[in-house]
Write a structure and sequence with these properties.
eight-stranded mixed sheet; alpha/beta; 12 helices; 36% helix; globular; 337 residues
Length: 337
């Protein structure tokens, strides 16, 4: 009888322990931050329950070749960073190229990303986040979007990409402010960035067949291949359009504009966004005396921060352990409590 009671107590303790663990992070789902062309854009916010009044913030942009996935692919990463890193996490959505009947353009995706960060900085204090300690991160296509914030986040115009300098009009703007005012105030400035196996050169990618059916992500997205800016703009005749959305051409020297500390990482076996591409970006940062840490993980392929296991034979529980620990160490160091 005593052994039965003991077993019952142990089972109850286990159940309560699991419940306590699950309660360590509170998740606010599908918060709408903008509605460009009546297309709702949402984010999920993960708030640690460790008892602090305020936490540093990490804003996450998912990957998927700008054609597939949504922010749910980053659920495991968001939970782990919030819980183990003791940070508020904003897991973002943005329009994909295939959305709105396959008419979305690359500049609109970037405008959604810029707008999402502005919304977070405006509202994250309502979720115990500290808007003065904000880091951004993204993997693959999300890595591209992260570096676009860093390198092009001051190129804002009310006319958007239709203007002469191919600027961007964020999908969300703070109340009473124009895109130009946000740019003047450096409203998209952040305190740190993590670039996970990112893409940096869409001009080169378009030259290499991104806009053709040979790019498997169009098939994954169940859409017909087309130009990044529609079929009237092409990479041969409109080089400026493609370079305007490619961060590799806009890495500033620290004397021109100091970027925040960055942690750039990639797997040694990655063929989708290879180490050579990351190295080229890091070399530009280093030459410009910008603060950067760089790591290549031996034996890892693409997309190791995605949930579960995927087409690249990467599994979060196995392949993300070391990178996530390194990310947390970097963020704790740069976003000091």
């Amino acid at each position: 009888m005593r052994s039965s009671i003991k077993l019952f107590v142990m089972l109850c303790a286990g159940i309560f322990s699991l419940a306590a663990s699950a309660a360590e992070v509170k998740i606010h789902k599908a918060i709408e931050f903008a509605k460009p062309d009546n297309f709702p854009l949402t984010l999920d916010i993960y708030v640690p329950q460790s008892g602090k009044k305020s936490y540093p913030v990490l804003v996450i942009y998912h990957g998927g070749g700008w054609l597939v996935n949504n922010n749910s692919i980053m659920n495991d990463l968001s939970s782990k960073i919030a819980r183990d890193g003791d940070m508020v996490v904003a897991n973002m959505n943005y329009r994909l190229l295939v959305d709105q009947n396959n008419t979305v353009t690359m500049n609109q995706i970037i405008e959604d990303v810029f707008g999402g960060l502005l919304w977070v900085k405006d509202h994250i204090a309502e979720y115990q986040g500290d808007p003065t300690r904000v880091a951004i991160t993204g993997d693959s296509a999300g890595g591209h979007l992260t570096t676009m914030i860093l390198t092009r986040g001051r190129q804002l115009e009310s006319d958007g990409f239709a203007g002469p300098s191919l600027g961007f009009k964020p999908s969300y703007l703070p109340a009473g402010k124009t895109a130009e005012q946000v740019a003047k105030e450096d409203g998209l400035k952040v305190q740190a960035a993590v670039v996970s196996y990112g893409a940096f050169d869409l001009y080169k990618a378009a030259q290499g067949g991104f806009e053709t059916a040979g790019n498997m992500f169009w098939k994954f997205g169940k859409a017909e291949a087309r130009g990044l800016f529609g079929n009237k703009i092409n990479v041969k005749d409109n080089v400026d359009y493609y370079q305007a959305v490619s961060p590799i051409y806009f890495v500033p020297k620290s004397s021109e504009y100091p970027l925040p500390p960055q942690f750039v990482h990639v797997g040694s076996l990655d063929k989708t966004t290879p180490p050579e591409a990351a190295q080229a970006y890091v070399d530009l940062l280093t030459a410009g005396k910008q603060p950067v840490e760089y790591k290549v993980y031996p034996g890892k392929n693409h997309a190791y921060l995605d949930n579960g296991c995927n087409w690249a034979n990467s599994c979060f529980d196995k392949d993300a352990v070391e990178p996530v620990n390194d990310i947390i160490v970097f963020l704790r160091k740069t976003l000091k409590d």
